[in-house]
Amino acid sequence: MTDIMKFENAQNIAVVRTDKLGDMVLTLPLVKAIKSNFPDKTVSVIAQSYCKPLLKNSDYIYKCFYIDEFDNGLKDIFRLEKFDAAFFPRPVFDEAIAGFTSGIKLRIGSAYRAYSVLFNHKVRDHRKVSQFHEAQYNVRMLESITGANYKTELIRPIIDEIEFQKIQNLLQNAQDKTKIIIHPGSGGSARDLPIEKLIAGLKAFANDNNFQFIITGIATESKICDDVHQNLQHSLNFCGQLNLDEMIALIEMSDGMIANSTGVLHIAASLSKRVIGFYPNSPHISQKRWGPYGTESIIINPPIDENTQLSDDMSKIDSERITEAVIKLFGKV
Fold first, then answer.
1. Which CATH architecture has domain 161-330?
2. Which residues pair with 24 in a beta bridge?
């Protein structure tokens, strides 16, 4: 039986993505492509539990399974739920072997791993070349089976009213201002713009009452968040104060975001917010593969240099380019 016949016969499909928040945002277009084009199939997502706010109540997702809630992770999930096909956008050996030993008939993963023999449909995309965006690479997994082309579209997270109400209360004095989230860290997931560069780029707006800057980050980033807050008069500092549901509601109620290459930037893109992003130049970590997808954005990179280290040195970014980007994307000083 051919792979396309196996897929056509598959009713219960799993998409496995168990790494970071932004990776899940960029994997959901695959889920949407499957469900939109094959509405009779059920699509379940297997993820880490911290991704719940991205997945809950989605029209495209049948069930969610969270590997950190099972003693034996993916092995237990595959015993509990009988899947006919499973997509592995970011294959790791333990997950590939779990799919193989569970007897899933169609297992879709990269052709370029030492353990690719565990997949019986091999996708021949070298992602590190960054010919496509990560979201497109994920949709291309489906295209590699069917031979058809599908839209690559992010999925908007569903936000509960209780989160909206909390954020509305926090922003009650900023209703008429342009609300811009500043997310200065990345939780170690990216090469960050040095905080002094960010501060220098935003100093022109320190006393501008047209903007309400809102600083966010995880608790361990409190030092850099405090540094930004101290240099931006009237800014709000919510660092370490919001859970992910509340953060998503805040993004929805904002006008845009300034951030490094990190998960919340991709959430902002999924909510069609304007984004200023800071990225190195090497293709595998650049905006070509990891930039905000499908939304209005300005990307700021270091100057290109023959020396790759210098080309990816975020400290080489001119802070004036940040000032110019804010004016262009959000309005005049």
1. 3-Layer(aba) Sandwich (3.40)
2. none
Under the phi-then-psi rule, with left for phi > 0, alpha for psi from -120 to 50, and beta for the rest, what region is 99? Answer: alpha
Whether the per-residue pLDDT at 333 is higher than 70: the answer is no
Residue among 246, 239, 50 at smallest CA distance from 161: 246
d(CA 272, CA 255): 9
Mean pLDDT value across residues 119-127? 97
Please report where in the chains the tokens 């992602």 appear, as a residue: 127
Q: Helix (H, G, I), strand (E, B), or coil: what is residue 87?
A: strand
Residue 47 has phi, psi (to 5 degrees) of -150, -175
Edge-first strand order for the sheet with 274-278 is 236-237, 211-215, 178-183, 256-260, 274-278, 297-300
Asked if residues 199 and 229 have their Cβ atoms less than 8 Å apart, the reply is no
The answer to whether residues 26 and 47 touch, using CB atoms and an 8 Å cutoff, is no
Q: What is the DSSP letter of 64?
A: E
Domain residue extents for the chain? 3-146, 161-330
pTM: 0.96
pLDDT (tens digit per residue) in 147-157: 999 999 999 99
Task: Look up the CATH number of domain 3-146.
Answer: 3.40.50.2000
pLDDT one-digit tens code per residue, 62-120: 999 999 999 999 999 999 999 999 999 998 999 999 999 999 999 999 999 999 999 99
Integer Cα distance of 264 and 15 in angstroms: 21
Burial of 275 (0-12, 13-18, 19+ CB in 10 A): buried
